[in-house]
Each structure stands twice: as C-alpha cells, then as structure tokens.
C-alpha cells in the first residue's frame, strides 16, 4: 500500500504542476487591453548602416505612414529619436503600435512636436535562450545608434535618443551604453518586461558572461538608486542616463514581475500601477496594449523641447526627464506611513499659489454627517464647496476618505482657516491646495479621483486650519462625490497568511454599512513569492448602483510594485494578493520590514459588501510553476543519478557476477527522495560556512517548494521510464518482424551483409554523429544520438524476447517430453545471442536505460541552440559559437565505446563509480538549479567516468565460456533448479 502511494504521489504532483501551467496561460486574469490600430498602412524603410558588412543578417528601419514615408526616404528627420529594440524572437515590426500613436500625435500637433521612431532588426533570434549572439547584437546596436545620430546632420553631434527595449532587448540597451562609441547619444533607457538584473534561465555560459560583464561595468560606472537619491548630482559616467524599468505583472508568464526591477533603475513601475493603465499585460501585449502605448507616448512627448529650425529633441537634464516620467508612470501611495515632508501641506511655507474662492458664485455647505454620498446626475448649476471640519480631539474624526467623479478641476481638494463669513456661511477666501494627497482612482468610464487624509496630522502641522474643502465646479456632466469620516481602528483588519495546508475560507467583513467606503486589511506572514491569498469581495445589496471595487496593494519591501486591482459592475470579484519579490532575509529584523502587506479596499457607497479570504491553491501552484520550473532539470538529473547509483549497488563486493537492478524499482524507493532532500539541505548549510566555497543555489528556495520540485522531477522520471519501456517494447516487436523478413530473403549474400551492417552500426554511427557536431551543431548530433540509442535499445529488447521465447520453449519441452536440448543447438543459440559479459540481455537494457535518459536530457537542454542553428543556416552551416559542442563530443566518444563494448562488464569498482554518481547528483542540485548550463558538463563527466570504468576496471572473475563444462553441469542438476547467476539476475530484475 505504501509503495503504491509513493508511486502515485509523484504522478499526482506532475498533474498538479500541469494544472498550474494551464492556469498560468489564461485563467488568472483576463486580458483587458484594447488593440492599437493603424490609420494607414505601416511602412518600414531600411536604412544603410556603416559597418553593417559584419552583420548582414541585421538591419535598421525607420517607421512611417502615408505621406510621412516620403520624408523618411529623403532622410528628413526633425523629431526626437526613439530607438526600439525587440526581444527574444521579436520582430522590428513590433514598433508599429508605439510609433503609429506617436505619428498621429505629431500630425495633430501640425508636425511641430513629434518623435522619430526607429527599430532594429535582429533576425528574430532567440537571444533569450541562446546567448551566443548577444555580443554581436550589442555591437550592431551600437552601430545603429551612431548611424541615427548621423541622420540628423549637424544636429546629430548633440542629439540624444531614448532606447525602448522589450524583453532581452532592454538588456541589450543596458549593455550598449557602457560602450564608449554610442553612449553619448543615449539620453535614457526604458525596458519593457525585461529580465534586467537576473535572466529567466541560464541555458548557456554566454548568457552568464553577458550578464556578469554588464553587472561589473554598471557597478563601476553607475550608482545604485539609493545613492542617487541621497546625492542627486551625477558622479559616475552612467549616472546621467535615465533608466526606467517597467514590468507587466501577473499576466506575464515569461518574465515574472520580480525580474523586471533593477537596483540601478531611477524609476520602476508596473503596468497595473501606471495611471490610466491599471491592468496587467502579458509579455507581448506590452507592445500593443493601447492603454499603455498612450501613456508611454505621453511621457515621451512630455520631455520634448524645441531645438531650432523646426527640430525637436528631448530635454537636457536627467532630473527633468525623471520628473516627467514620474508624473506619467508612477502612482504615488499616500498613507499615514509616509515621511514628514509629504504629510506637511504644500504651501504652508507661503510660497505656493493659493486657491482663490468667490463665495458669491459658490455654495458653501458644512454637513454634520460623518459619511454620506451626493449624486447629481444632471450636473450642478453652481459650484459647490463641501466643508469637512477638523476635530483633533475625537478619534472618530481622525481619517477621511474622499472621492469625486467627473470633477473638472485639478485643485479640488484644499485646506484653510474658515474665519470669514459670507451670508450665513463660514468660508475662507483663500485656501491651500492639497494636490499631493489626491490620486487618480482606476475607472474605465469616468474621471475618478480620491484622497485619504489623516485629519489629526493635518491639524498638527497646520494648527490654524479649521476645515478641509472639496470643491466641485458647475458642470452639465453627472457628478458624484462621497465623504467618509471614520476612526481608523474601526476600519483596520489584521489577518495572517494561512498555513500551507489550510485552504478554508474566512469571513473578515459581514454586511458592511452602506456608508463605508474604505477598509484597510493588513496581511502578516506573507514573505515568499508563491504565497497567494484570494480576496473575495461580494456586493450583498446595492441601492440602485453598480458595485465597484478598487484594491490598492502596498508591499513595504518592494518599491515600485504597488498595485491597483479594480472591477466594475460586478456583484462578486476575486483579487489575488501575493508578494512580487521575496522579503530580504537580512532586513527582516528592521522596523520597515516588519510592516505587513497593506490592502486599501475602496468600496462604492450605497452597497453592502461581504469580504472573505482564503489561500489560493491554483494561483500558488501557478506562481511556483512560473518562477521555479527552471529548477526541474537539475533535480531530474540528480534523481536519475541516484537511481542509477542504486542500480549499480545491487551486487555484493564478494559476488562473482555483477547484477544491474531495474530503474523503475530504484526510482520508487522512498529513501531516494529523502536522501536527496535532507542531504542537499544540510550540505548547502554546511558549505555556506566556508567563504572560499562558491555559494549554493538551494538556500533561497523554500522547503515546501523544494519538496514539490523533487516530487515533480520524480514523477517526470517515472512517467518517462514507463513511456520508454512501452515505446521500446512496441518498436522492438515491430523491428523483430522486419528483421525476420529480411533475413528470410532467398539471397544469402544480402542476409549476411545486413547482419554485418547491424554488427558494425554502433561505432560507425557514432563517428558520423561526431562529424555532424563538428560541421553543424552539437545539439543536432545529440538529438540524433538519442534516436540511435533508442534503436539500439529496441534491438537489445528484441534479442531479449527471442532468447526468452527459446528458453521458455526449452522448459516446456523438458516438462512435457523430458527431453534435453543437444549441445550443438545450444552452441548455435549462444552464437545468436549478442549479450554482455554477464550473459543477460535484460541487464543490458537496465544498464543503458538511465544513460539513454541522460542523453535525452542533454539533447533537450540544447534544443535552443538547435533552433538557432536552423534559423541561421542560411547565413552559416555551422553554429558559432556552440555551447553544446564540447559536451556533445565527450558524450559521443563515450557512446562509441559503450555501444561497441559488451557493457555492462563483469568488473570491479562499481562501488567507486556509485560514490562518484552520488557526488555529481549533489553537485547538480547545489550548483546547477539556476545555472542550468552546468548540467551539460555534469552529464558529460558522468559518461566519461562510466566509460573509463568500463575500460580500465579489472574483472571480478573469469567466467567459463566453454560449452562442455556448462553442459555437463546442467545435466547434473535437478529439473527446474536455477543457477547462481540466474537467481541473482531474477532477484535484481
């Protein structure tokens, strides 16, 4: 029973992992982006680049539409240049959404302030998974920057451009500015859904070298964000370049949000927090989502300044550029935890322009109600000034939540001392604006603004003030505003992240008052990125209005990751809460890091709501799949090596005959999983004590995630083993029939030649595969080697079936007729039986099956280089550089020897080989989870060790090969008695 459960558990975990992958693809959040359409057919004009003869497969293009194409063909560029760099597998045509909107904006401006969009063609190379071309792409990008500067003539000497890089294109932009030639023409870099400081997966050492080189260059020439804020004056060479990073959010399943930020960025923003965007976008949607495209172009146009003779460029000075980007891309989070400078009302020093009131044209109203909502569907004929009294001594009057809809005035919130009297109303002629407290609230239908004020703090810093004013100008549009004054302790709810096994739903708010518009929920215990809470908000009853829910998520240790989630006209909505990045362990003891995740829930007045929460299994698994799927290859290799080690340790040291166990039996032993899990964790902690030893890659992985990855890897191996056995059995039966028909041909020469080719096949094909790896690509030769290995295993299984049939027939004949086979028939069968030294075909399959799986894994790890070779075959027959060449050659040489020898040989030293496999298994888990490319060398080392062992290890004991002694010994035995070797083999199998 326990055995069945242990076999079933990994398979169920694989199914759960597949479910998480399906959830990631399309069941977390709907795509609410609007398409960006062109008004005219887009045109891409190729521009010649000096030095392009080194890179014939790359190109530079300028975007245009309609009559603007003629200006581009005449090289008449007068706008500010923007260079778009596509990502992995991306096309230069992906610039059209950004460029088309900018072109329409320029035409609306009568071609005064406008942008010139350029795009780089990188041959749609998969540079995100193959890093061999990253340096070539960087060098070509540098040539493009210099060529764009030359297009502007004399003005090009001082021209400065903005580079927008999508995905790995953002990393190319970061790499090009540290080169002396083109850096002086770059004013800023904007990355879209780009893995900036860390790659998604390190599948080859070229990626690692590329990232490491950029990191070292920026570390020397660029200050980190905290240093720049402390000392704004540029000190290092790269400090003067604006660096903006933008992430896509939960819908981006390729580059998760934790990878999109950089410690060198001046500003980090997520699309779900950018004003007027407020939604998550997937990896490709970031380039055509209309909401984001509009905001991005507005930010770029906001930096334009005239440069004489109808020319335009970007404003000089990084601080001005950053202020503009912050205004359009950043959504400040105003709370009671902000610093003192933000809480002090602007204008208290008397330097800011005050708001002038005209009481004869306004209605001044002070309402005694603490919470109320005013709706004016037909608009307002007179300006209304709603007065909110500052009462410093009463806790019930400490906080106020104000929200206005369709207000046409920016300075709608202010504070003053209402000491003047007009008519029967108190009023103030001048008021101080509180614009820094107002924030746009997500809405797809209205202009909606809100503010959350601490009235006691406001009174403390402005003791003369008596009221906060909400000014609604007269309008014909429907207008609504709500005021909610409350005690924060009554609206604050503290919850804790449930345990990993607890998925019960908990109610934290039941039938809230219809006047309540704000609640703050503090979530404690959420530190890992996979931890997810599903917050269910239901509108129980509404007074003729549609329920609208806006939730602001603030993670105190993740700057730039604040998130808005809003749902309109829904009776029930589910919002998923998770930490975008892991809480830094070295800062967990500080006061800032102890602050829990804050959820500010903004509700629609007039509705009663019910709020429930529970741990979300589906999104938790989906985020584990998204962030940790890259760890599976290392665990698969480690488990396979441990299982192979268990196969080789089935024979005692003093036994005369070596026996290989079954792979499936070794994989289903519980000790295998427990050993790897416990030993790897203890080894990682032990190695961390030594500074001279490189840090391991298992310390930062949570224990629950590690166990899940172990189970998934084990399930993958079990399923793969069963599938391979089924495929081998099917193909062996099919091949058996074909071989019998070919051998039965009436031409003896053809039959003998065919058998001879079968005998010479392994060594010849191995030499051919090595030639393929040298002339084409190492990954191609590995894929072919896997196919050849499969054919050889099928042939071995066919031999096993043939001998099994003969052996069974002999036993049946002996039982029925008491007859014994003749020695000449025995010799013929022995000559027909191409076995290893131990004389068992099934043992040959058991020995080679884990090696076959290692070859498959090695081939799959190098599939990206195979795809790259195929895409670039038109330019070069051989892939240069080839990350799989050395491992492929080592493995192919070893396979040539193992295929030719009768392996496994009956030799000594399998204990030493097993110990070596154990060491490599732990190294794979400790050092190859993130640096996946290291598995190539681990697998190659395993093949080299096994091959050397099979060649140089001494034999255990000379096995008798003469037929006469065997026959005599067989005649002396009782019927049905087994030999010592047969018993050992059956025990292992």
From TrEMBL:
<feature type="transmembrane region" description="Helical">
    <location>
        <begin position="842"/>
        <end position="864"/>
    </location>
</feature>
<comment type="function">
    <text>Involved in inositol deacylation of GPI-anchored proteins which plays important roles in the quality control and ER-associated degradation of GPI-anchored proteins.</text>
</comment>
<dbReference type="InterPro" id="IPR012908">
    <property type="entry name" value="PGAP1-ab_dom-like"/>
</dbReference>
<feature type="domain" description="GPI inositol-deacylase PGAP1-like alpha/beta">
    <location>
        <begin position="77"/>
        <end position="302"/>
    </location>
</feature>
<feature type="transmembrane region" description="Helical">
    <location>
        <begin position="884"/>
        <end position="901"/>
    </location>
</feature>
<dbReference type="GO" id="GO:0006888">
    <property type="term" value="P:endoplasmic reticulum to Golgi vesicle-mediated transport"/>
</dbReference>
<dbReference type="InterPro" id="IPR056824">
    <property type="entry name" value="PGAP1_TMD"/>
</dbReference>
<keyword id="KW-0378">Hydrolase</keyword>
<comment type="similarity">
    <text>Belongs to the GPI inositol-deacylase family.</text>
</comment>
<feature type="transmembrane region" description="Helical">
    <location>
        <begin position="705"/>
        <end position="731"/>
    </location>
</feature>
<keyword id="KW-0256">Endoplasmic reticulum</keyword>
<feature type="transmembrane region" description="Helical">
    <location>
        <begin position="908"/>
        <end position="927"/>
    </location>
</feature>
<dbReference type="InterPro" id="IPR039529">
    <property type="entry name" value="PGAP1/BST1"/>
</dbReference>
<keyword id="KW-0813">Transport</keyword>
<keyword id="KW-0472">Membrane</keyword>
<dbReference type="Pfam" id="PF24660">
    <property type="entry name" value="PGAP1_3rd"/>
</dbReference>
<keyword id="KW-1133">Transmembrane helix</keyword>
<protein>
    <recommendedName>
        <fullName>GPI inositol-deacylase</fullName>
        <ecNumber>3.1.-.-</ecNumber>
    </recommendedName>
</protein>
<dbReference type="InterPro" id="IPR029058">
    <property type="entry name" value="AB_hydrolase_fold"/>
</dbReference>
<dbReference type="GO" id="GO:0015031">
    <property type="term" value="P:protein transport"/>
</dbReference>
<feature type="domain" description="GPI inositol-deacylase transmembrane">
    <location>
        <begin position="706"/>
        <end position="945"/>
    </location>
</feature>
<feature type="compositionally biased region" description="Basic and acidic residues">
    <location>
        <begin position="970"/>
        <end position="989"/>
    </location>
</feature>
<keyword id="KW-0812">Transmembrane</keyword>
<dbReference type="Pfam" id="PF07819">
    <property type="entry name" value="PGAP1"/>
</dbReference>
<feature type="transmembrane region" description="Helical">
    <location>
        <begin position="738"/>
        <end position="755"/>
    </location>
</feature>
<feature type="region of interest" description="Disordered">
    <location>
        <begin position="956"/>
        <end position="989"/>
    </location>
</feature>
<feature type="transmembrane region" description="Helical">
    <location>
        <begin position="761"/>
        <end position="792"/>
    </location>
</feature>
<dbReference type="GO" id="GO:0050185">
    <property type="term" value="F:phosphatidylinositol deacylase activity"/>
</dbReference>
<dbReference type="Pfam" id="PF25140">
    <property type="entry name" value="PGAP1_TMD"/>
</dbReference>
<dbReference type="GO" id="GO:0006505">
    <property type="term" value="P:GPI anchor metabolic process"/>
</dbReference>
<feature type="transmembrane region" description="Helical">
    <location>
        <begin position="933"/>
        <end position="952"/>
    </location>
</feature>
<keyword id="KW-0653">Protein transport</keyword>
<feature type="compositionally biased region" description="Acidic residues">
    <location>
        <begin position="960"/>
        <end position="969"/>
    </location>
</feature>
<dbReference type="GO" id="GO:0005789">
    <property type="term" value="C:endoplasmic reticulum membrane"/>
</dbReference>
